[in-house]
Amino acid sequence: MEERDWWHRERQEAAEQYLPHNVCGKGHRRSLALETAEGGCICLPCFAALLSDPRSPSHHVSYALFQLSRAISDPYVLRELRGKHAYFIVSPLVSALSVFDDEALARQVIDLVSDLCFRRDNGGLGEVDERSASSLLSGDFIARIADWLAGTQAWSRRQIRMLHCFGVLLSSFNGTSPAAHIREQAALFSNLFVGLQLPSEELRGEVLFVIYKLCSSNVTPWDDLDSDIDNGIDSLDAGATTLVRLTLEILLRTQYDEVRMNCLALLLILVGKGFQSSFLNSYHNLVLEEASKQKEEITQQTPLINLFADAIKGPLLSSDEEIQIRTLDLIFYMLSPGNCSLKQILVLVKEDIPDYIFEVLRLSANKEPIVMSCIRALTLFTTVEEAFNQKLVLGLPTLLSILHYTSQLPLHPAQPQALNLVCNCVSSFPGIMSTSQVEDLALILTSILKRCINGEYPETFLLACSTFVEILKSPSSSGIQKIGELVQEASRGSTNIL
């Protein structure tokens, strides 16, 4: 037994000799009190009653929360509370979030719940036992809050605090899966869907984060896609399709970056699970029942792929780089082979999504994550070559700037893709480049071919040669005095490699 545990045990045994059997004015047994390191005690039944009574003065509740928070800073007290008395505090703390309409009080409760569930006790229990005690207690809180949210009849600010606490618990849960603690998944998601349709941005943000965490942990009431069924929309539960649509509608309308981040995180999870198939065959109207308790029918008019195109335009032009990168990642995974048909990609081109990406690239100031994300997303549009080449013409000046930047860095991973885009544009529209652009591109290609001698990608070498051939076909190349010298210099580099 550790010295500190021995000290607590000795103090408790000494107290038993002098304290009466009942140490609470309400007559509760002393065994139900939590001994503190300072020599005091907290009567847990009284604590529970205080938090559960809506008539309790908020300053009394705040003081009680503060005292318990201070008490569990002692590892021994925290272990005692987790091991013997946890059943006293779970329900009252959850009730306090719904009973008291007080923002500061709600923050105290959430902080206390987080400490109770996830604070390390710094010794005493082994790591496995500590994790087990933590997961059991956090699982109890998850079960209580999930039941409460599943049974809620109306949304208010109190539900926002409950959702925030739920999100904190799901984020830090270290057990096997929170699914084991959530009994009414369908009812929970039904209410969460209702919350997504309410006008409060704060509420939507919290609901989106909770759904994101639930989907990340595979806590969903719908089944996975059946890969054996050709028609993806038929094998997808209506709930998942509704979630995709609601999330896109929120992303389209919101001006809050936090809500955008939660939308994008959720959509990335859904695409990763195969729910992008709901974009296929979505050109017909879908009639979905939402909020069955309210018996409302929502007729979906806009095809999901068009809604997707409209929804991502705002985030692409966001001043937050992380939001831009998340949006570009979403586009990349949506357009990856097998995830989207050529018809859907063509819709995105017609909706000017490549133009938005070129604008992001133009304003990127050559920041590496933005450049990489933009180039790899643009590359996937080449599958609809005829339509996309029209966009390439407008984006050519930006691509030349990026190609110049990548040519100055050895083995830059975006260089082959950027070079391929430029080559496609030049070969499709030989006369599109001005004399100055041809000269600049020839200098860039010469620099790239020189670097190829030192071990650049073979793919880059072949693309550089092909692009050089294409610009020589351009009418603008005839007006460049140095073009012959550049060709000779590039040829010497190519000969050395071959």
Automatic annotation (TrEMBL):
<dbReference type="InterPro" id="IPR011989">
    <property type="entry name" value="ARM-like"/>
</dbReference>
<dbReference type="InterPro" id="IPR044968">
    <property type="entry name" value="PRD1"/>
</dbReference>
<protein>
    <submittedName>
        <fullName>Uncharacterized protein</fullName>
    </submittedName>
</protein>
<dbReference type="GO" id="GO:0042138">
    <property type="term" value="P:meiotic DNA double-strand break formation"/>
</dbReference>
<dbReference type="InterPro" id="IPR016024">
    <property type="entry name" value="ARM-type_fold"/>
</dbReference>
